[in-house]
Amino acid sequence: MTSKGEKANGADLSQIFLKVTSVYFKLSAQMDLALKPFGLTGSRMGVLRTLYDLGPATVSDIARMRPVSRQGVQRLSKELTSSGLTRLTASPDDGRSKILELTPKGRRLYERAAEMRLEMLDELATEYSAVELNRLMSTLDQIEETVLRIEPT
């Protein structure tokens, strides 16, 4: 990494991106282990969270909101539906499209799993001050804004 006070460079950002990715995958693996007793994975939990937060949606809509392909969401929706956590109904707007929605069983399971997830993150958060986490979030927000402004060459 560049010394303090020097202008950052691409290699600095590359190291940060690798570290953020590494932390993400390590935390995801731990989350998957913690979700296993619920019969969930991080991916299944993500679809349930989207439906819980936003309500019923098409597979295509969910795929646009999450970093998962439409085919991946389709596979997850079949798994969740066969487990009784979601149901597919015909779209009132378009008979060809299917709307995915939480069942009461899916809502209850999501709420229990989300509570466990938050407890796990609360434990992790005790290692940091609110100031440190806010500073990190602010820096990541700035990097995201810059990335969105840059045109790929």
SSE layout and pairing:
Layout: H1 10-35, H2 42-54, E1 57-58, H3 59-65, H4 70-82, E2 86-90, E3 98-102, H5 104-125, H6 130-149
Antiparallel strand pairs: 1-3, 2-3
Helix pairs in contact: 2-5, 3-4
Please explain how this structure is put together.
The structure is a single chain. With 153 residues, the protein is mainly α. It is built from six helices and three strands; from the N terminus they run H-H-E-H-H-E-E-H-H. The protein has a three-stranded antiparallel β-sheet with strand order 1-3-2. Helix 2 (42-54) packs across helix 5 and helix 3 packs across helix 4 (70-82). The longest helix has 26 residues, at 10-35. It is globular.
SS content category: mainly alpha
Query: What sort of overall outline do the alpha carbons produce when their principal axes are compared?
Result: globular
Main sheet makeup:
3 strands, antiparallel
CA distance, first residue to last residue: 25 Å
Q: Assembly type of the shown chains?
A: single chain
Order of strands in the sheet with most strands = 1-3-2
User: What is the typical, i.e. mean, pLDDT?
Assistant: 92
Low-pLDDT runs: none
CA-atom Rg in angstroms: 19 Å
Question: What's the β-strand tally?
Answer: 3
Instruction: Please state roughly what percent of the residues sit in beta strands, choosing from under 5%, 5-15%, 15-25%, 25-35%, 35-45% or over 45%.
Output: 5-15%
Number of helices: 6
Order of helices and strands: HHEHHEEHH
Helix content: 55-70%
